[in-house]
Amino acid sequence: MMCKLLEKAGVPPGVVNIVFGTGPRVGEALVSHPEVPLISFTGSQPTAERITQLSAPHCKRLSLELGGKNPAIIFEDANLEECVPTTVRSSFANQGEICLCTSRIFVQKSIYSEFLKRFLEATRLWKVGIPSDPSASMGALISKAHLEKVRSYIKKARAEGAQILCGEGVDKLSLPPRNQGGYFMLPTVITDIKDESCCMKEEIFGPVTCVVPFDSEEEVIKRANSVKYGLAATVWSSNVGRVHRVAKKLQSGLVWTNCWLIRELNLPFGGMKSSGVGREGAKDSYEFFTEVKTITIKH
After folding, report:
1. Alpha-carbon torsion angle 271, 18, 22, 290, nearest 10
2. Which of 1, 12, 37, 91 is 20 to 30 Å from 139 at the Cα level?
3. Where, by residue number, is the active site (predicted)?
């Protein structure tokens, strides 16, 4: 469909080519081919490592947008009327299958109980359903294997002594009979979990988020930066000075303050550390997909 629209718009044949196939067959053939000069990839870190290995002999240019373990930092002066529904959405939108989704929620101790109470109430209103149901907030996960992977993290958290306050294994999932065999799961909230847990370190990529308390600004910055990823973060505070201080110190390619997923497509997009290499968007994309040439003429 996209190719038909491009052709209709007047894009010359051959400018855009779509090749269907699996990563091991088609993907590897493309990234290792000497006539493919650069690669823009969005996906997992292991696949990015393989792309880097295959492209290295040809010194190809790479733009890699990888995983995230994105923190939301909620200070005691946050506006909870806006913060709670937005953080529910940032945690569970598209079943949590967005690289920018929030999976670690740090809440200042003085408001931790109040935030958690409101967050759980709002999460339980988040309806799981089929895409044709206009009242559904989220649908099924991408595959059976991925559903089992996400569930395995919840089992690990429970084995570590964490509390599962709502969602998987706690609440009943209600679906039409014909959809009960689908890859659905409820949005799940975990508390009483240590920063060293795999649920706080690894990208789950599902409707699972961890909520933990913190005391000070310095402490929460250190904890937010303690993972290998650095894609996105959100900061909630009415203190403008604090917002600027914290945003500057967070090791994240994108930082939203008092909002989430507001995008200006002309601004650079990309992550730090294991969340990727390079930036894309407007000027950055133009520079990535073109070559600068210096020509000196004597006359």
Report:
1. -40
2. 1
3. 65
Same-domain status, 35 and 106: no
Query: Is 65 annotated in the active site?
Result: yes
Within a domain: 244: yes
Is 126 within a domain? yes
Catalytic residue among 28, 35, 65, 280: 65
Q: Are residues 182 and 35 in the same domain?
A: no
Tens digit of each residue's pLDDT (9 = 90 or more) over 41-56: 999 999 999 999 999 9
**Burial (CB count within 10 angstroms: exposed 0-12, middle 13-18, buried 19+), residue 15:** exposed
Tell me if 43 is assigned to some domain. yes
Domain that holds residue 32: 20-66
| Distances 251 to 26, 68, 70, 195, 271 between C-alpha atoms, Å | 34, 11, 10, 17, 9
Q: What is the pLDDT of residues 230-245, one digit of tens each?
A: 999 999 999 999 999 9
